[in-house]
């Protein structure tokens, strides 16, 4: 029985690695072009690339990572301020919750008598 499990594991190992294969070459090429358009500070090139590849900005920008950075951070690090300002509305914000009791200073304490 152990021999059968070992043989099955050896046979199925290449299939497991191929299931986690990289994206298709066309999608990779498209995303590289989008990253290059983000690095350029040309809004014409950026808009032309978005329309040419029919990029859904709301779905792609929060998820796209270029060279280990978010798309917005990638554009800012390359000095593409105009492109980064076009991307900024599509990036996800951070929400923090503060304890309401801790936000009041001693001058703003609300006292209720009943």
Produce a short descriptive summary:
This protein is mainly alpha-helical and 114 residues long.
Q: Specify Rg, calculated over alpha carbons.
A: 25 Å
Low-confidence stretches: 15-20
Cα shape:
globular
Tally of DSSP helical segments:
7
Q: Mean pLDDT score, rounded?
A: 74
Strand order of the largest sheet: 1-2
> Span from first to last CA?
78 Å
Question: What is the makeup of the main sheet?
Answer: 2 strands, antiparallel
**Which structural class matches the secondary elements?**
mainly alpha
| Assembly level | single chain
Number of strands: 2
Return the string of H and E elements: HHHHEEHHH
Report the β-strand fraction as a percent range: under 5%
Structural description of this entry:
With 114 residues, this protein is mainly α. It has seven helices and two strands, in the order ααααββααα. It has a two-stranded antiparallel sheet. α2 runs antiparallel to α3. It is globular and about 40 Å long. About 5% of the residues have low confidence.
């Amino acid at each position: 029985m152990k021999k059968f499990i070992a043989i099955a594991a050896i046979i199925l190992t290449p299939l497991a690695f191929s299931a986690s294969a990289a994206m298709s070459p066309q999608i990779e090429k498209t995303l590289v072009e989008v990253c290059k358009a983000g690095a350029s500070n040309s809004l014409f090139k950026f808009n032309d690339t978005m329309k040419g590849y029919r990029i859904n900005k709301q779905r792609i920008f929060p998820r796209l990572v270029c060279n280990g950075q978010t798309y917005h951070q990638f554009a800012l690090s390359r000095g593409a301020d105009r492109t980064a300002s076009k991307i900024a509305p599509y990036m996800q914000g951070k929400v923090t919750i503060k304890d309401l009791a801790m936000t009041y200073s001693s001058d703003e304490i609300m006292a209720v008598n009943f």
